Amino acid sequence: MRGEIITIGEELLCGRVLNLNAWYASCRLSAMGFHVTAIATVGDRAEDVRRVVELALDRSDFLIVTGGLGTTDDDITTKTVAELFGRPLTLDRFLLDHIRQEVQKQDLLWNDDLEKLAWLPKGARLMDPEPKACGYYLEEKGHPVFFLPGVPEEMRLLLDKFIIPHLQALQSGKTYYATRTLKLFGIREDKVGTLLKGLGRDVPDLIIGYYPNFPEVHVVFTARGEDSALLDSIVADAEKAAEEKIGPYIVARDEETLEQTVGKLLLNHKMNLAVAESCTGGLICHRLTEVSGSSEYFERGFIVYSDRSKMEELGVPMEVLTNHGAVSAPTAEAMAQGVCRVSDTSLGLSATGIAGPTGGTPDKPVGTVYIGMATARGVVSKGYRFFGNRSQVKQMSASMALDWIRRFLTGDSFFHRL
Amino acid sequence: MRGEIITIGEELLCGRVLNLNAWYASCRLSAMGFHVTAIATVGDRAEDVRRVVELALDRSDFLIVTGGLGTTDDDITTKTVAELFGRPLTLDRFLLDHIRQEVQKQDLLWNDDLEKLAWLPKGARLMDPEPKACGYYLEEKGHPVFFLPGVPEEMRLLLDKFIIPHLQALQSGKTYYATRTLKLFGIREDKVGTLLKGLGRDVPDLIIGYYPNFPEVHVVFTARGEDSALLDSIVADAEKAAEEKIGPYIVARDEETLEQTVGKLLLNHKMNLAVAESCTGGLICHRLTEVSGSSEYFERGFIVYSDRSKMEELGVPMEVLTNHGAVSAPTAEAMAQGVCRVSDTSLGLSATGIAGPTGGTPDKPVGTVYIGMATARGVVSKGYRFFGNRSQVKQMSASMALDWIRRFLTGDSFFHRL
């Protein structure tokens, strides 16, 4: 089944609000095997709403319209489609009662404008009336047209709980969908393309996409068809073939993150971790602790922004800072060893660099970053030159540092000293 | 001038990629006084591209098309508009040379597919050819039509550096735009609406919007018209009136962030800061260090995830942890005092709580968070109950902790002991 999404609201056209409703709906519908063929966004002008609804209805099996259902004068969706479809507005008494009860329950003041919400185009039926979410649908030219509030929570609720099951029930000759995302770090998108060239060319149902998702590159395999078991094996075969080419760069799959991968590896190896951050300013620890259960392997972290704190907290020798500078391999190594010793963990990780935009020198330009890692057996470090703004340098550095743990625990030869 | 934005790409329709290009373009164009009347997204099918381009051109003064300009078979934008506009594809030798040079410079392999990039519809002119960003434009039915790559960095560069100046030069009878964003924290959206009710009702050119932007609420004043000085004063008046009602909740304005506000206040008060984080896991320090120049006031931070680290690094007494627990007011206070003493800073900030989803108890459910703050004069703490998932509890806690500094340095009476 092919459908279109129409989102209505001036705030979406002047950029004040990011159109997450269209994104969410397209994600969910695609994942369920429905084909979204177009998304249109228009403002609060009846003429524009009329035009996009009319056009979309001509070309689609279903239509989802969000926004413009509120109480104010610029909420014109219901009135406009009532006119367009030749369906007079009629009062839905059940809905009106429901709104009155909600107002009472939430201790709000009744406002006559609220009655407007209960006047629907003739023949419209309420979606399951969850509190606060008053969407409705109707059938026009044999196609279902769904009207949803623009409030993201309400829109998502009705989409998931009502629209998708409704469409699934209508669908005959079911289409399935299998998908797998490989998340790569440390490799450029064009290199991924070169390495995977030709992959899946002989499998007509398979689509392969490369998507930069800074600082990662995501490779997505998607198969759509009628035999769900076949689709799963198509995607699994493609994943296996890809692994042979880009295996070392895969840091996570599907919904998983690099920090989850790292957490699992640390648990498997019964290791625990302490982190010393300078240029990353807490981002490495923040990412590690986004994972529920991270307290099982993450012991503590230090954000040693000043030279003084590097010395006092981690015992970085003053001579190292004086002779090599805070941004140097010896400092990164001293930080990693220091944090490991101070915290009594089996692994110590460090990052020190120049995030910018100021602080760069000809010798050590903005983006110069050293990563260090220590275990009881020794210490390694390496310098990098990252590109981008302050925030991007922090992100690249944090991903690189986290990926060091993954590579170390999966046996990368770079870490032979540890 | 009224314009439309067309974004092309299957990845935008199946939800794999969030349409940030349309969002960015609509933001920038609106801010410059251009009126975006519609945004359309279609996939890589010639028929759909043709239809939206044709329709948009009929109704607009200008048109911006992004995506589908690459080298692969599914990049059909150029070929499709060449046919639609009856302009044969012609080889742009300057562009071809430029691409060859780039390939050489970046040490990539030449690929015959790359030549496709240099075949443009007859009459098309290159936008200023910055490296890697090969957009072009042409005039059709008297209206400029701009074609941009879908890569966000390239698209943004060409929009800002070429399209907007180009449109400004074309514009006659200029429309201006004044806007101001107030960023609020610690107040619910409905409360903001109640407090600001009636504001600006007598000013026809003024639009006021409330936008939840977790964990903040943003209030945006926008005025559009022909007298730029008048618009500025309309927005300034509205801002002043709003300040009287919601002043204490304003944590930042326009592009500024709460952490920038905090940084400025610390600099003004010649204070420096150390942070002890438990449940926020590094997020407070990460946000503080997103600000360039934060090393002038941010001394160091501790992520004391374990009880042991709270005792060892910050001297939190074992009795406090045993008697009150790690998530308690006494622990938050001991952390704030400890980090202040250890770091020898004028201000110490702490957060300890249960981010979830596990670890909650009937007594201290998930979302229970204590914030602490210490100076040489004493210490204060307070407990909160935040709602949401792990990431949201971390965000709320970090914003609350940072906002404590703002409120302390702007004289909030809660901090009378400090």
Quick summary:
The structure is a homodimer of 418-residue chains. Chain A has 418 residues and is an alpha/beta fold. Chain A is built from 14 helices and 17 strands.
Task: Furnish the topology, listing elements before pairings.
Two copies of one chain form a homodimer.
Chain A: E1 2-8, H1 10-13, H2 20-31, E2 35-42, H3 46-59, E3 62-66, H4 77-84, E4 89-91, H5 93-105, E5 119-121, E6 125-126, E7 136-140, E8 143-148, H6 152-170, E9 176-185, H7 189-195, E10 206-213, E11 216-225, H8 228-246, E12 250-253, H9 258-268, E13 273-277, H10 283-288, E14 298-304, H11 307-314, H12 318-324, H13 329-343, E15 347-353, E16 368-375, E17 378-385, H14 390-409
Parallel strand pairs in A: 1-2, 1-3, 3-8, 13-14, 13-15
Antiparallel strand pairs in A: 4-5, 6-7, 7-8, 9-11, 9-12, 10-11, 15-16, 16-17
